[in-house]
Design brief:
Mean pLDDT: 90
Largest sheet: 2 strands, antiparallel
Shape: elongated
Order of helices and strands: HEEHHH
Distance between the termini: 25 Å
Structural class: mainly alpha
Helix content: 55-70%
């Protein structure tokens, strides 16, 4: 998953670098709940979105290295420590991957100048919350 995140960020960077001259001066910057464009911005907004994506990647990667900072939600004992931290680590890495993919999609899609696909909003909300629900159940079982 870590490699997939890095490849996604690198691919988005290459997409912006190689295609910069072909990107229209104005791109969609906001979509309503139905995925329809309701605001536009300069193409520089794509760089800002990508920078935010990279900052989230590095921030979450740093957080992965500090298990003591994780909000565990269950009592950690010597008996369950390994399982609890393993499930939390997988939650963090899976969440990072979903966020990176969602933000990369949000960076690349506006270049097309089209509405977001109808499946994007449910997926971008369902994936992170689904991961939290799944790993919360795993964590509860590991306690």
């Amino acid at each position: 998953m870590q490699i997939m995140c890095i490849l996604c960020l690198a691919g988005t960077t290459l997409f912006l670098l190689i295609g910069w001259n072909q990107i229209p001066a104005e791109v969609p910057s906001h979509y309503n709940g139905a995925g329809e464009v309701d605001a536009v911005a300069g193409k520089g907004s794509l760089i800002l979105l990508h920078v935010i994506n990279c900052l989230m990647f590095f921030g979450i990667t740093a957080l992965e290295q500090i298990p003591q900072a994780w909000n565990v939600g269950v009592k950690v004992t010597e008996w369950n420590r390994e399982r609890v931290y393993r499930h939390l680590y997988h939650l963090i890495v899976s969440s990072k991957m979903s966020v990176i993919f969602i933000f990369s999609f949000m960076t690349i899609w506006p270049v097309r100048g089209e509405n977001f696909p109808i499946w994007f909003t449910p997926l971008s909300l369902g994936l992170p919350f689904g991961l939290i629900a799944f790993f919360s159940i795993q964590l509860w079982r590991a306690r």
